Amino acid sequence: MKNLIFALFTALLLSSCSREYYKTASYEGYAPAHQVLAVVPVHTITSGRIPPEVTEEMIEQIEDAESQAFQISLYNEIARRSGSHAGEIQVALQHYSETNARLKEAGFTPRESLDLPPTKMAEILGVDAVVRATVRKTHYLTDLESFGFDMASSFLFLFTDWPFWFLPDSKTADVDASCSILDGQAGVPVWSANRRWRLDWNRRHNEIIDNISRKMARRFPYREL
Questions:
Q1: What contacts 24+ positions apart, CB below 8 Å, involve 205-213?
Q2: Distance (Å, rounded) from C-alpha 67 to C-alpha 63?
Q3: Per-residue pLDDT tens digits for 112-148
């Protein structure tokens, strides 16, 4: 029992330290005035080895769909950790449907809103700060190619004496994700985090999105112990 309590306390302490680490020098000066935040459309970027049959229009359609999926997932993960108790995120969130409706009313599509400065974005949305994220996918193999390598790896491992460290890599892509909270008056970041993920061909798309959002939300500030 004592070990369990110690483990929980250690996890809480490490989580708190992690959030503190990602705060910028501007946090203490601006964050106390933040009452309402908005998670704005996520900037998704696709690069690397793209199959020749995939057109620019197709990539934009994929990126737009991923942008909305990431925005909703990140909002949900942050909202799930919000509340008035110790350790919970103690700031209000504008619902993503309201955010997107206000952008549309102001004449901006989600893709066009990516170029707006944070001060203009906050003014349009009527919030104190905006949560902006960028997700860049760098592709190395198509899914079918990666699947072929994975099958070859399994065959070599099971039926030959080939050393496992020489087996082919089934990595499909790397994903670099960054997330920042930007003050609506000064436009300066008060908190920023980034992570890199390795993706394999057999990972479900929604699983990847939720995993990235979950990791970012765990580091989110505005908490009191």
A1: 206/69, 208/175, 209/66, 209/69, 209/70, 209/73, 210/73, 210/77, 212/70, 212/73, 212/135, 212/175, 212/177, 213/70, 213/73, 213/74, 213/76, 213/77
A2: 6
A3: 999 999 999 999 999 999 999 999 988 755 554 444 3
Residue 224 included in any domain = no
Torsion 104-115-189-29 (CA) sign: negative
Q: Identify the CA nearest to 132 among candidates 66, 37, 62.
A: 37
Domain interval for residue 197: 2-218
Residue 225 lies in a domain: no
- Residue 25's domain is classified under what CATH number? 3.40.50.10610
pTM tops 0.85: no
How many independent structural domains does the chain possess? Answer: 1
